[in-house]
Design brief:
Strand order of the largest sheet: 4-5-6-11-10
Shape: elongated
Helix content: 10-25%
Number of helices: 8
Subcellular location: Mitochondrion
GO cellular component, one term: mitochondrion
Keywords: Lipoyl, Mitochondrion, Transit peptide
Largest sheet: 5 strands, antiparallel
Structural class: alpha+beta
Radius of gyration: 41 Å
Function: The H protein shuttles the methylamine group of glycine from the P protein to the T protein.
Oligomer: single chain
Family: Belongs to the GcvH family.
Number of strands: 11
Distance between the termini: 91 Å
Order of helices and strands: EEEHHHEEEHEEEEHHEHH
Strand content: 15-25%
Amino acid sequence: MREQAPKSKRGLQRVTEPDVGGQPPPTAWHGSPTLPHATEYFVATYPISSRARAHTSSLSLSSPLPPHDKSYSSSTLPVQPHDSSSSSLPLARPLRSSHRPPSSPAMAASIVCSSLRAAARPAAMRLAAPCRAAAAATPFRRFTTSRMSLVRKYTKDHEWVDLSADGKTGVIGISTYAAEQLGDVVYVELPEAPASDFVDQGDAIGAVESVKSASDINAPVRCKVVAANQLLEEKPATINQVPEDDSNGGGWIVRVEVDEEGARQVGELMDAEAYKAFIEE
């Protein structure tokens, strides 16, 4: 049995489940029941429109719904009998499976209204979410104004040169292997920039001093210095951190202009794999 309380303000009925002894426990309108074995819930008793009721009658359910009546209450809901041999508490409502009909006309009306809204929704709106998901999964290539590098080559003196795609400009620095061998860099001597003349391949264009030793920086190819990395004067240790970074804040040494002879000399230098084999010998 279930105790039925008067209707609340919004068409709801309060239903209190009995405890194990079969007597309804005292409850309050706000908060939890005063006894731990009581369950309180509310059942909607809103009327259903004629259109919703007509659509509900066409639904294929495992068992028919009771006829609509404004006086319909929770007393018609099935209650699972309590097995006294079991130590578990009685279930007020059986577990609902996918084939069980709605437990109240209000719930059936809600299902019908949801179905009608989905059927009336335009196809474009139904496709909007999948299209957004597909667009989010599509990779986009981000283009920047940074210089496009064609190839990076290395010398036996452990300098590297990055030649641009047009073969007319480049960036020069020292390799990671050279930076590790030098140890902590404390001073970097930079050339004057921009220079007025080209320097030949192998000519010194700067120097690096560390706590261990000092070493010249030689031009990997024939080139003319157009800019020097002034950051290295303030933070020479940048070479130890990112020696092969040719971006702003990197450890590159100079930016240069390359002529046809210099571009040809780049092709004679070692690529990354050949340089790796060279330093491992």
